[in-house]
Design brief:
It contains 4 helices and 2 strands; from the N terminus they run H-H-E-E-H-H. The longest helix has 36 residues. It is mainly α. It has a two-stranded antiparallel sheet.
Length: 101
């Protein structure tokens, strides 16, 4: 048990552990994943391409739809379409999408 404490740095004080952790973050040494049996940085980099593709696609779609709905609402000021778009925008901004949980 003492060997594990030493290997994981748990034999050091909490402030010293924190400094080592921060230093390792700056060096991109995120540790080893026992679940995936590989370095954590490798896992992150392996999935980075798909994440960036999903993120940029979603960003451009949401900005495009937002601009189109904003223009439509601006052309129909004080009509029910303007009110509906404004209400839906506020609701979508204020609520969490629970489908991911």
């Amino acid at each position: 048990m003492e060997m594990l404490r030493k290997n994981f740095g748990l034999d050091k004080s909490i402030p010293e552990q924190l400094l080592i952790y921060i230093k390792n973050l700056f060096l991109f040494d995120l540790g080893f994943s026992f679940r995936h049996n590989m370095e954590v940085l490798e896992i992150i980099l392996d999935r980075l391409g798909a994440t960036l593709l999903l993120m940029t696609t979603t960003l451009f779609l949401s900005v495009g739809v937002g601009i189109l709905l904003g223009l439509f609402a601006a052309m129909r000021v004080n009509h029910w379409q303007d009110s509906l778009i404004s209400i839906l925008a506020i609701i979508s901004y204020a609520t969490h999408f629970f489908g991911w949980d």
